[in-house]
């Protein structure tokens, strides 16, 4: 069994305090008996997070090619060509720059999204692009001439000054022009007036990422898992590794109280049962992959290793 737990590595500045409060005896037992098999630190600027790169098996120079996998999950036919994900987004001001809000917090209804989509569609059509509606949070654009565009995943860009995370490449000016038109269009749109009136975030941007050029990419297990995660929906089949995504949102928000609660849930629902399966001999090994925004650590635990009863369970390796 492989278990991927993004953002299980606490930030160094909070690690001591968080580990004192974290109640995860099954994980402590597993880590204490584990062999470290991989440890990597990402460069300061990468367009996908370590867990996204581990799943996609692509370089961090651009976002993983998940557009076609997401389209398949939404039962959308993807013609030949280069497809991108377009997500309605919200930017907020932080001091002197703009920051991308976690798209999980946008909470856009299907009615609102379709209204914004219908308003935007002529602008894409006039620019020579096909735009398809997938669901409230995901639209898809075909732009065959945009090969080589480097985009960032929303989670990689979340919480940062967006300037360096915006798409770059030969056609970046075309996207920025189209994006500016969308921003002006939506600025006075009734959907945003209604959202502002009820205290919801305004939809004032669109996030472009996930460019996918071949149909085969839609069938890759790692990309299917990432697509399901992006869609906040269960995967369509039993995918390995077992992904535990509940820590991502609180970690991106810096909500460490919620992070501790989510960790406790993962301990109870996934980690403790996995330890029991290993102890009972129903599994030969467990591979744990734990990450944060820059680091990835992979451990392997065998059933034989659990017999080292003299080793005291500890979570200190999370802070190593």
Labels describing this entry:
320 residues; alpha+beta; 19% strand
Structure description:
The protein has two domains: 2-47 and 235-319, no CATH class; 82-212, no CATH class. The protein has helices spanning 15-21, 25-32, 50-56, 67-73, 110-126, 154-157, 172-187, 190-197, 221-230, 248-253, 256-279; strands at residues 2-5, 35-41, 83-89, 91-94, 97-100, 130-135, 138-142, 205-212, 242-243, 285-291, 295-302. The strands form three sheets. The protein has a five-stranded mixed beta sheet, covered by helices on one side. The chain has eleven helices and eleven strands. Mean pLDDT is 93; it is low at 236-240. Strand 4 (91-94) and strand 5 (97-100) form a beta hairpin. The protein is α+β, with helices and mostly antiparallel strands.
Summed up:
The chain has 320 residues and is α+β, with helices and mostly antiparallel strands.
């Amino acid at each position: 069994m492989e278990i991927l737990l993004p953002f299980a590595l606490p930030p160094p500045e909070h690690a001591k305090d968080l580990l004192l409060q974290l109640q995860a005896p099954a994980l402590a037992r597993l880590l204490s008996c584990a062999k470290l098999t991989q440890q990597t630190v990402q460069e300061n600027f990468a367009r996908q997070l370590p867990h996204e790169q581990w799943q996609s098996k692509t370089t961090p120079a651009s976002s993983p090619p998940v557009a076609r996998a997401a389209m398949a999950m939404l039962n959308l036919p993807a013609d030949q060509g280069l497809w991108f994900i377009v997500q309605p987004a919200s930017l907020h001001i932080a001091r002197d720059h703009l920051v991308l809000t976690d798209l999980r917090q946008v909470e856009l209804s299907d009615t609102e999204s379709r209204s914004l989509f219908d308003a935007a569609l002529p602008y894409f059509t006039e620019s020579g692009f096909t735009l398809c509606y997938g669901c409230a949070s995901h639209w898809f654009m075909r732009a065959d001439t945009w090969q080589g565009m480097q985009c960032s995943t929303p989670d990689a860009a979340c919480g940062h000054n967006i300037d360096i995370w915006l798409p770059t490449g030969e056609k970046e000016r075309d996207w920025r022009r189209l994006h500016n038109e969308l921003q002006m269009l939506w600025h006075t749109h009734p959907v945003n007036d209604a959202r502002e009136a009820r205290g919801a975030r305004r939809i004032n941007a669109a996030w472009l990422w996930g460019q996918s050029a071949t149909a085969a990419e839609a069938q890759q297990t790692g990309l299917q898992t990432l697509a399901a995660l992006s869609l906040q929906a269960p995967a369509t089949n039993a995918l390995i590794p077992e992904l535990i995504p509940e820590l991502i949102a609180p970690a991106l928000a810096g909500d460490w109280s919620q992070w501790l609660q989510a960790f406790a849930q993962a301990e109870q629902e996934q980690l403790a049962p996995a330890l029991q399966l290993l102890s009972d001999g129903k599994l030969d090994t467990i591979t744990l992959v734990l990450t944060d925004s820059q680091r990835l650590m992979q451990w392997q635990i065998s059933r034989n290793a659990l017999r080292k009863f003299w080793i005291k369970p500890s979570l200190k390796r999370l802070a190593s």
